[in-house]
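All the exercises in this workshop are built on plain-text protein records. A record pairs a protein's sequence with a compact description of its fold. The structure tokens are whole numbers drawn from a learned vocabulary of backbone shapes. Once this layout is familiar, the rest of the handout is easier to follow. An example says more than a description, so a record of this kind follows.
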Amino acid sequence: MAVPRRTTAAVALAAAALAAAPHAVAHAAPPAERVEQVAAAAPAASRCGPMDVVFALDDTGSMGGALNNIKTSINAVVGDVVSASGGDYRLGLVTFKDSINVVTGLAAGNAGTVTGYVTNVLAASGGGGEPEASDEALRTAVSLRPAAGIPQNADFTGPWRSNARKFVVLVTDARPGGFDDAFTAADQASATAVANSALAAGVKLSAVYVPTSPSMTPTIAPIMQNYATTTSGVYVQAQADGSGTADAIRKALSDCRRTDVFMRDQTTDNGVEVNPNGSVWASPDIKVCPTTADCATTYQPPVGSTSWIHVRLNNPGPYGSGTGAGTLKLYWVNPSGSTVWNEATGGDWTFIGQQAATVPAGTTVVKVPWTNVPGPGHFCLLARWVSANDPMTHVEGANTAQNAKNNNNIAWRNVDTVRVRPTVPGRTSFTLGNAVEKEIRTDLLFTSPGKPFVGAGKVVVDLGRELFERWQASGGQARGIERVGESAVQVLDPKQAALIGIAVRPGERFTAGLEFHGGEPGGEYLLHVVQRLGDEELGGVAYQVLVEKE
């Protein structure tokens, strides 16, 4: 039916007012040496903080009443987002029948685009009968899906920001039917899978059901309720004539309650961001065990085995309360100093697995299987807690150490157990890299905060030809170090030795071999190898050296 529309001038005025609200665009993280500036640049206080919001609207003929209701209130709906986010928002809009129409992907400060389309273009029409592609519309929004190969007019672009409250609001009166206009058990499973994907991405799905065909309610309502309950979203049923739809959307977007699950960087860490306590690469809350049973921290997973990563989640931290719900995600890399993180690709990190979890007050240990553990058998581990009610406080950049220091739901454990015999050396490695955005002159420090291995035995570091030449070309400065081969040095100072000023370009990685010779049978020693930039640690590895009997 014909829908009354506002005048173009009125629409332009309202859109301009919303678009003019101040907003922040996520920038790449600054270099590592500027951590204190990152702390000062925390998001401005607002009710919700940064918000990424996508509207997924059924625009079939039966939705006329609901869409009219949205039209009359879209400026208020979007204005709520602008206000609650402190102007730091991104909006997306998709409409759907049996296919998907991407109006806009997530883009900063695009209130005018969304309000203009809803007011001037959005209309109920067609549909060809129930069901509709609501599950696929959600999949497109959650997964930032391109259009290739599916009935979708354009790519849905992002990204979702890790430090934003992430919402998708679905409005429909129909069952999910994929793209084939039929509802089967496979479509119900598809809807469940979409909810689980949103949970893993930290996206809150809220569902507004418009009961235009009450006989369908017993089937549709549980599916839409599951979207909300799985992801900590909101489920609301509007009136059959569509009244109350916009109010339901505003209710969903007002839900900014905050939980605060955290993992410790050190035993003294209480979740404060930015962590003021120094090294962030030896978390006591991560370890690997041979089974789901607890084990000693010195266990080293055999290559090819299935082992279990145990992660302790603490609740609450200082920034929220209540039971946490989200997904724990785990990654590995060979023992390294500076490592590059990229949320889309993992950067230097390889994905291991994930586990959805509910975390009540206290501590909860989540156990994730690590199947077919890869060689060479020495690893660093990264844990990330992804939750719709507990987003990152600071935008994740390329520098893993900085991300872990800034966010209490990221933890990094670089602890390697090396087994040695008095006449058989133990071998492992250390990778030196550069996650900063410019060439750096980095130091490699060898320290012994526990019982030193140097003295009882010796430590030889083979830099490899290229890294050795880099060190030499940078001046060949060292402290407590002696050259013992073409590309190898020996650590002489049991407390603190260093290779100084090695030039490393952005993205470069060099792997040095470490050999531990000798030691007393039954002895347990500790060596820290730390990559530094000035006074700041870019990352490090704690090598627990165990000398076994022959």
Summary: Residues 1-44 have pLDDT under 50 and may be disordered. The first strand starts at residue 51 and ends at 58. Residues 498 and 509 are 19 Å apart (CA to CA). The domain at 417-547 is CATH 2.60.40.10 (Immunoglobulin-like).
